[in-house]
Automatic annotation (TrEMBL):
Domain ATPase F1/V1/A1 complex alpha/beta subunit nucleotide-binding: residue ranges: 141-354
Subcellular location(s) of the protein: Membrane
UniProt cross-references to InterPro entries, sorted A to Z: ATP-synt_VA_C (IPR055190), ATP_synth_F1_bsu (IPR005722), ATPase_a/bsu_AS (IPR020003), ATPase_alpha/beta_chains (IPR050053), ATPase_F1/V1/A1_a/bsu_N (IPR004100), ATPase_F1/V1/A1_a/bsu_N_sf (IPR036121), ATPase_F1/V1/A1_a/bsu_nucl-bd (IPR000194), ATPase_F1/V1_b/a_C (IPR024034)
Species: Marinobacter zhejiangensis
Descriptive protein name: F-type H+-transporting ATPase subunit beta
Keyword Protein transport: no
Residue span, ATP synthase A/B type C-terminal domain: 363-420
Single GO term (MF): ATP binding
Main subcellular location: membrane
Length: 468
């Protein structure tokens, strides 16, 4: 997706200096006064505006900046102007239903936003006194999520997984579920992902009829690291606007936050900083915290977030993955082993965790059923090697029952998705939490022992008597 011609600035910029060096996306600018960090500077070429963001003060009169547009055509000696502010995006109530780039310019072929205001993408987080805690549990209709990784208003959920295990599919199912089951609006940040995926998502949202309640901000794989580094903040700025000014309940979805870290790492090397652990930027944890701390709910509106996190080489100990993990309430871990067995969504029920899985938040019944399911699945995992070597006959009666029920529970927690209906040929299902709890209770107590594993696979609710 290419960046369209930049629009004319809203404020008249004042000259601040001269471009002295340009190396790919890095510019060294000689200034008559030092602009603050994060200030947006610009140059004009053929009546188009090229934006830069200040990243380093080199000495008393030189700064290093990163371009937010392509750098071809820029040359030494060009006059650089100060826009007077950090990067800002136009905000307006009619931003919903639009597909924008990081500057708030349309990528959907529509008219530019008629801005009622401009907001800086570097807004500081709200004071803690204005933040409110997490709210009620939101049902997604996805069995394994509602049961083991509950989704809470104002909470932060991460979907972790290596390449191709189903993060994007699960994110799209979330958007589908939450836009049909709940009131509210969604802001989608497409960070550094494939351009094809962006187009598909846009069309699917339009077909599903959820576009009027959704705002999408894209900075995709082909764009400069400066853009990929800022697209999450730009989308978050719109989410804050919807929360603070329009008092909406916002679902903030980011696919993929790992690409934000990757772009930060590229920017860091371009600025000549020494890499830190595993080659990541030394500022990794600060950059993640600056973004995560802005995802807050207030008395006026809530921001609930879902973030897809690419796990490099399926290694959950990766420093970038850990930096994100620390900020989340719920971590849904997608496993390649589950996907390999055709268990979709490929959620690993034992590795996934939620701070909200307690009696106080969910109630004693939900908590005990969830624990019962995890205990069965965990015992099954422990016994798997023994079963492979010696067969089921060597198990005690109790273990035999646990394994049979765990295998059925594992299949019961699969579910056909609306998002994948076009390629699986199975219509999606949404299962109320009450049904999921009742069915799991029936599995644990042995009431569903008569069902075959086939009867449990890719079904919705089992109706209390085992009939889908
Ligand atoms: N719930 C599901 N039901 C059926 N198939 C699925 C499901 N989830 C994922 N898949 C299959 O896995 C493929 C990859 O899924 P997806 O694009 O969501 O992975 P990803 O983790 O986002 O990958 P990447 O990191 O490469 O972007 C899908 O095209 C689909 O074939």
């Amino acid at each position: 997706m290419s960046i369209p011609a930049a629009t004319e600035p809203t404020l008249s910029p004042v000259p601040i200096g001269t471009l002295t060096e340009i190396h790919g996306p890095v510019a060294i600018i000689s200034c008559n006064r030092l602009p603050p960090l994060h200030q947006a500077l610009c140059a004009y070429l053929d009546h188009e505006r090229y934006l830069f963001e200040v990243h380093q003060h080199l000495d008393d009169h030189r700064i290093r900046a990163i371009t937010l547009h392509r750098s071809s055509g820029l040359s030494r000696g060009m006059t650089i102007y100060d826009t007077g502010t950090p990067l800002q995006v136009p905000v307006a109530p009619n931003c919903l239903g639009r597909l924008l780039n990081i500057f708030g310019e349309p990528l959907d072929g529509g008219a530019p936003l008629l801005a009622s205001d401009f907001r800086s993408v570097h807004n500081p987080p709200l004071p803690l006194s204005e933040a409110v805690g997490i709210g009620d549990v939101i049902e997604t209709g996805i069995k394994v999520i509602d049961l083991l990784c509950p989704f809470v208003k104002g909470g932060k959920t991460g979907l972790f997984g290596g390449a191709g295990v189903g993060k994007t599919v699960l994110i799209m199912e979330f958007i589908h579920a939450l836009s049909t089951l709940h009131q509210g609006v969604s802001v989608f940040a497409g960070v550094g992902e494939r351009i094809r995926e962006g187009h598909e998502l846009w069309h699917e949202m339009r077909q599903a009829g959820v576009l009027p309640q959704t705002l999408m901000v894209f900075g995709q794989m082909d764009e400069s690291p400066g853009v990929r580094f800022r697209v999450g903040l730009s989308a978050l700025t719109y989410a804050e606007y919807l929360r603070d000014t329009l008092h909406k309940e916002v679902l903030f979805v980011m696919d993929n936050i790992f690409r934000f870290i990757q772009a930060g790492s590229e920017v860091s090397s371009l600025l000549g900083r020494m890499p830190a652990t595993v080659g990541y930027q030394p500022t990794l944890t600060t950059e993640v915290a600056e973004m995560q701390d802005r995802i807050l709910s207030t008395g006026h509106g809530a921001i609930t977030s879902v973030q897809a996190v690419y796990v490099p080489a399926d290694d959950m100990t990766d420093p970038a993955v850990n930096a994100i993990l620390n900020h989340l309430d719920t971590s849904v871990i997608l496993s390649r082993a589950q996907a390999g067995k055709g268990i979709y969504p490929a959620v690993d029920p034992l590795q996934s965790s939620s701070k909200l899985l307690d009696r106080h938040t969910l109630g004693a019944r939900h908590y005990e059923i969830a624990e019962g399911v995890r205990e069965h699945l965990s015992r099954y995992q422990e016994l798997e090697d023994i079963i492979t070597m010696l067969g089921m006959e060597e198990l005690s009666d109790a273990d035999h029952n646990t394994v049979i029920r765990a295998r059925k529970l594992q299949r019961y927690l699969t579910q056909p998705f609306w998002t994948t209906a076009s390629h699986t040929g199975i219509t999606g299902t949404s299962v109320p939490l009450a049904d999921t709890l009742r069915d799991c209770e029936c599995f644990l107590s042995g009431k569903y022992d008569h069902l075959s594993e086939e009867d449990c696979y890719m079904r919705g609710s089992l109706g209390g008597d085992g009939v889908a």
